[in-house]
Amino acid sequence: MVKKLLAVGCSYTEDDYPFPVWPKLLAEKFNMKCINLGQSGSGNEYIYSRTLDTLVTEKNLGLVVVMWSEFQRLDFCKKGIWKALHFKVGDVERNIEEWANKLMKTLTERGYDDIVGQTERSIRLFYSLQHIMESEEYNNIPFY
Length: 144
Fold this sequence. Notes:
- By secondary structure, the protein is α/β, with parallel strands linked by helices.
- It is built from four helices and five strands, in the order βαβαβββαα.
- α1 (about 20-30) links the parallel β1 and β2 (about 35).
- α2 packs parallel to α4.
- The protein starts with a strand and ends in an 11-residue tail after the last helix.
């Protein structure tokens, strides 16, 4: 039975380019089936959640590779559909919908774009997933 490579990340992982992306190339190199859950614009909550969901549901995983995103993204899930909202960077509003830019502006005005807080939130997710992958249940699956 062929082992599976699980790849989760943002646009640098997503398989929506006219050329092969790193998850596909890595899976081919190791003769594995590729499960690519990369989603453009996604943040670390999406990456963390989708990785955990897949660990629970998929069997025969041979490698898990997570490409973390930037910390200025907030992810929400509604009826199984994930949406990331982005804090403004410099003068650049990064959301397509105007309501999303207004919401992120309100959060910024109230101090919720705090770099320290956003970084600490991301580090908690990184540490938590690393700790889960080191647990007895998953420690035989290589994790990067």
